[in-house]
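Limitations

Structures in this collection are predictions, not experimental determinations, and the ligand pose is part of the prediction. Treat each record accordingly. The example that follows, with zinc ion as the small molecule, is included so readers can see exactly what is and is not provided: the inputs are given verbatim, and the output is the predicted complex.
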Amino acid sequence: MKIRSYIPEKIHPGSYPLSELLKCPQCGGPMVQGNSNPMYKYYQCSKNKNSGSSVCLSNLVKKEYVEEYVLQDFLNQLKKKVSPKAIYSVTQSILGYELNPLESEASNQEKQIEKLKNEMFKAMDDSANPDLNLDVEMMNSSIASKQEAIYKKKSKLANINKQIELKQNDNLMDIIEYSIKNFEDFYQTLSDEERKMFFHSVIKEVHVTKGKGTKDRRINDVIYHFDLEDLNCLAEVE
Ligand SMILES: [Zn+2]
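Predicted complex:
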């Protein structure tokens, strides 16, 4: 894989994962955590924050909006540029992990059914043999209970086989969506500090429009450190 390893120069503590990646629409300088207001969270031009409005305006951008936008942009890039094969190879190992216990449970059920059948056939032979002089009623009830047990196990086996079939027949897009969805779930479990490391390792810069006011300010470009197409090398290695 030709992805250059990137070590962020300095990661500042705080809960603003896009700090410094976000560029001020006016001066082009880095944007950082805005002066805190518990109700509204914004990124703010660092020059404005440090030196005041004579140098640059605050150019506030809503924290929630930019972070959600950048995450979705990354996921879209993943869908668009990374080959199904690369994602598929990762997904298969996840599904395989779930399939194995199901398959061994199915084979376990099959063995038990086979054993019960043999016992039942033996009981039928025995009860038909006049030399053994067995109690007919007792033999019939024993045969009936074995039949009942076989029926229950067959129904359980059918259920397991259905699950296996579903997992094997998932079409490719379902699998890809599953992987991408999982990535999003995974992202939600990250701390702000981990999100910051993640964003800084894949993203170089995020540009926002100047806009008339905070509400109008929108992201117009997300620049990555590497082309996500490079991830396709993951599939070629196998
Ligand atoms: Zn600025």
